[in-house]
UniProtKB/TrEMBL annotation:
This is Peroxisomal trans-2-enoyl-CoA reductase. It holds the Pfam family adh_short_C2. It comes from Hydrogenophaga pseudoflava (Pseudomonas carboxydoflava). Participates in chain elongation of fatty acids. Catalyzes the reduction of trans-2-enoyl-CoAs of varying chain lengths from 6:1 to 16:1, having maximum activity with 10:1 CoA. Has no 2,4-dienoyl-CoA reductase activity. The keyword Lipid biosynthesis applies.
Length: 287
């Protein structure tokens, strides 16, 4: 079996990853995946395509989206819609939902994967840097959730939301901004999972730990090397681990699950520590 590089699988290897799911599981269904141009988002889109879903992929980089779309068609998705969208802008989100509804007439699954952060000590955050992370990881996620939930409510159709967050439960030194945003999304999801149950809308979150992907490129080589030792299984996960968890929650297998946080991190929230910045001498054990 092909093992991922420190930055994940190439497209060919990703397309050939084994899956436990039957090939036509999502035949006839429509899934929106944000941030699908690379990393975890691409893996999620690849798996949905292999399972027969029609796909909407959105993000801010048209070249990456088009490259992903070519693979999705090769993998068997009967229809792929590419939309360049900045989820920080609610008007663009509303336009996205309008375009999708006109094209497909339905949406079954929304995967809010778009997001990002940069490693830096919290004392050094600028106002601009803080707002950029919060606007994408919290506000953008919410704009997508609300816009689609309103459409489902108004059309009397059921839907399913899976939000990709992070393992914020024990803190993540160096990315306090994303911990704040991801924790907010998690508890927002728990709340609206109750409010929206009457409309047949399920809302869940997945918290990936250290996952070998292009997202590792923003961290120092020392941090990336340390990630493998930050959980009791002593290795990083791969993007397919997260994609399969998303399918589990959005398929009939998850029909009685809502308001939950599924952590995919090799037990990292139970043991170990993950520094995304240089570990201060204060925390180093003297020998």
């Amino acid at each position: 079996m092909t093992e991922p590089t420190p930055f994940g699988f190439d497209d060919e290897a990703l397309a050939a990853r084994p899956t436990v799911y039957q090939p036509r599981l999502f035949a006839g269904q429509v899934a929106i995946v944000s941030g699908a141009g690379s990393g975890i988002g691409k893996a999620i889109a690849f798996l949905y395509a292999r399972l027969g879903a029609r796909l909407v992929i959105c993000g801010r980089d048209p070249a990456k989206l088009e490259s992903c779309a070519e693979w999705l068609r090769r993998l068997g998705s009967p229809d792929v819609l590419v939309q360049v969208t900045n989820i920080r802008e609610p008007e663009q989100v509303e336009q996205l939902i309008d375009v999708v509804w006109r094209h497909f007439g339905r949406v079954d699954v929304l995967v809010n994967n778009a997001g990002g952060q940069f490693p830096q000590r919290a004392l050094d955050y600028s106002v601009k840097g803080w707002k950029a992370v919060i606007d994408t990881n919290l506000n953008g996620t919410w704009y997508m959730m609300q816009a689609l939930a309103r459409r489902w409510r108004d059309t009397g159709t059921q839907g399913n939301i899976v939000n990709i967050v992070a393992t914020f439960q024990r803190g993540m030194p160096g990315v306090a901004h994303t911990c704040a945003a991801r924790a907010a999304v998690t508890y927002l999801s728990k709340t609206v999972a109750v409010e929206w149950a009457q409309y047949g809308i399920r809302v869940n979150c997945i918290a990936p730990g250290a996952i070998a992907s292009t997202g590792f490129r923003q961290y120092s080589p020392e941090a990336v090397k340390a990630f493998a030792g930050a959980n009791p299984m002593k290795h990083v996960g791969d993007v397919q681990d997260v994609a399969e968890a998303v399918v589990y929650l959005s398929a009939p297998s998850g029909k009685f699950i809502t308001g939950e946080l599924l952590t995919v991190d090799g037990g990292g929230v139970l043991w170990g520590e993950a520094w995304t910045i240089a570990k201060p001498d204060y925390f180093k054990v003297s020998t």
